């Protein structure tokens, strides 16, 4: 016998779990379908930074990221769940005058001279052009955060089926049917694999390798960040060093080249850091769209079907804002026009292909 809900979400990563939470919070009945176990895709590979400033892409991205940070603060205060929310923020280092100038435009940052950096953080490699602290760019534990969103959604009545690989979304009178679930609304939040359900959706991946160090004795009050590389101090006293950017690799193996690159990153920030014991190494595949901004919105020609995927380096940062945008589209709340345009899935769908006749979408 089929069961009815308002919304089916496909994909139990940070994006799918947060969508389940915010739609359930809006009073909708929600079922989440995950082909494996929740929070085990790219989400568990992330460092967890909410780097609105370090990952700045454009003003639309920035205001969306700021809203997401605010939603995290609210979720932390109201959920009562520990998801590794760690204050302090990100210290962005300036190794050139050009980098110092670029950082100086942020009025909300605290700008430090090279001497002030040395005084505050004697353990790190002195940066010749100082550094800027972005306190608002806190970090979370990605896996725990996805679980926290799911736990909060479940409390509101959302349900979950794990180990269900969705291969087909059938159109039925009242909406859609997937396995034995019927819903008016379907959200595809399958991360890098979303294109499997949406043939023609342009999605590539960029592999990233990380390592976690037992660096007892090294006290970092901030995440250290420079040109896409970082050292993140987790609450348990360990440090996450990341990450490689490998566009042509699609496997999830860690390797010697990655190890060497991570050692070099570690030494770039803290002398001797690469000699600390490695607790864990891992790799993940960042889902990348045509322009590094996510696809969030209606799927063309499919009423009440949406995609929320392709968050590249920023899925943890953007998860709550993404979920609220999907919720607003579903319930008919107003959504900023510039966001609809900037994140429109159309820009990545079926370039040069005839959507209806050449491809067989879901
Ligand atoms: C090394 C590294 C470091 C990163 N650091 C950060 C960071 O510091 N901050 C940040 O914001 N972001 C970071 N990211 C990016 C972030 O991890 C991703 O953007 C985010 O996890 C994407 O989440 P997702 O839910 O879209 O995808 P996923 O976590 O991959 O989840 C998608 C889920 O959908 C399921 N699924 C797919 N297809 C189907 C199907 N057909 N049927 C059923 N289920 C399906 C999958 O099994 C999976 O569980 C990092 C990424 C990497 C690799």
Task: Describe what this molecule looks like in 3D.
- There is one protein chain.
- The protein contains 9 helices and 16 strands.
- Mean pLDDT is 94; it is low at 352-362.
- The chain has 2 domains: 3-73 and 141-201 and 290-348, 3-Layer(bba) Sandwich (FAD/NAD(P)-binding domain); 87-136 and 204-288, D-Amino Acid Oxidase, subunit A, domain 2 (D-Amino Acid Oxidase, Chain A, domain 2).
- The protein starts with a strand and ends in a 20-residue tail after the last helix.
- The strands form 2 sheets. Strands 1, 2, 6, 7, 8, 9, 15 and 16 form an 8-stranded mixed sheet that branches. It has an 8-stranded mixed sheet with strand order 4-5-3-11-12-13-10-14, with helices on both faces.
- Helix 1 (14-25) runs parallel beside helix 8 (315-331).
- With 362 residues, it is of the alpha/beta class.
- It binds flavin-adenine dinucleotide.
- Flavin-adenine dinucleotide binds next to helix 1, helix 6, strand 10, strand 14 and helix 8.
Annotation keywords:
362 residues, D-Amino Acid Oxidase, Chain A, domain 2, eight-stranded mixed beta sheet, 16 strands, 9 helices, 2 domains, FAD/NAD(P)-binding domain, alpha/beta
Order of helices and strands: EHEHEHEHEHEEEEHEEEEHEEEHH
* Number of domain units: 2
Average pLDDT confidence is 94
- Oligomeric organization of the protein chains: single chain
User: Per CATH, what is the topology of the largest domain?
Assistant: FAD/NAD(P)-binding domain
Portion of residues in beta strands equals: 15-25%
Number of strands: 16
The CATH H-level superfamily of the largest domain is: FAD/NAD(P)-binding domain
Q: What separation lies between the terminal Cα atoms?
A: 22 Å
- Spell out which ligands are present: flavin-adenine dinucleotide
Number of helices: 9
What would you say the CATH architecture of the largest domain is?
A: 3-Layer(bba) Sandwich
Helix content: 25-40%
CATH class descriptor of the largest domain: Alpha Beta
Alpha carbon gyration radius = 21 Å
Cα shape: elongated
């Amino acid at each position: 016998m089929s069961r009815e809900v308002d919304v089916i979400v496909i994909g139990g990563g940070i994006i799918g779990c947060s969508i389940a939470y915010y739609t359930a919070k809006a009073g909708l009945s929600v079922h989440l379908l995950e082909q494996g176990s929740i929070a085990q895709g790219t989400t568990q590979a992330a460092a967890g930074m909410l780097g609105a400033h370090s990952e700045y892409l454009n003003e639309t991205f920035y205001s969306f990221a700021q809203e997401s940070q605010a939603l995290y603060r609210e979720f932390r205060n109201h959920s009562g769940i520990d998801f590794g929310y760690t204050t302090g923020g990100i210290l962005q280092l300036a190794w050139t005058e050009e980098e110092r100038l670029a950082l100086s435009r942020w009025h909300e940052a605290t700008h430090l001279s090279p001497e002030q950096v040395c005084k505050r953080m004697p353990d790190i490699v002195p940066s010749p052009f100082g550094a800027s602290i972005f306190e608002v760019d806190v970090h979370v534990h990605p896996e725990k955060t996805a679980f926290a969103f799911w736990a909060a959604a479940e409390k509101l009545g959302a349900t979950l089926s794990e180990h269900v690989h969705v291969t087909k979304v059938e159109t039925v009178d009242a909406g859609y049917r997937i396995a034995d679930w019927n819903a008016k609304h379907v959200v595809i939040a399958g991360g890098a694999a979303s294109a499997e359900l949406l043939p023609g959706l342009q999605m590539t991946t960029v592999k990233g390798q990380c390592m976690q160090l037992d660096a007892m004795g090294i006290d970092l009050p901030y995440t250290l960040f420079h040109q896409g590389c970082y050292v993140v101090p987790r609450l348990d006293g360990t440090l996450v060093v990341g990450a490689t950017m490998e566009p042509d690799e699609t496997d999830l193996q860690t390797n010697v080249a990655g190890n060497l690159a991570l050692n070099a990153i570690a030494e770039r920030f803290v002398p001797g850091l690469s000699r600390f014991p490695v607790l864990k190494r891992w790799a993940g595949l960042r889902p990348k769209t045509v322009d590094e901004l996510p696809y969030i919105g209606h799927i063309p020609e499919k009423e009440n079907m949406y995609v929320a995927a392709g968050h590249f380096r920023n899925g943890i940062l953007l998860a709550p804002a993404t979920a609220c945008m999907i919720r607003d589209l579903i319930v008919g709340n107003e959504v900023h026009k510039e966001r609809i345009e900037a994140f429109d899935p159309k820009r990545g769908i079926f370039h040069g292909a005839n959507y209806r006749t050449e491809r067989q979408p879901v």
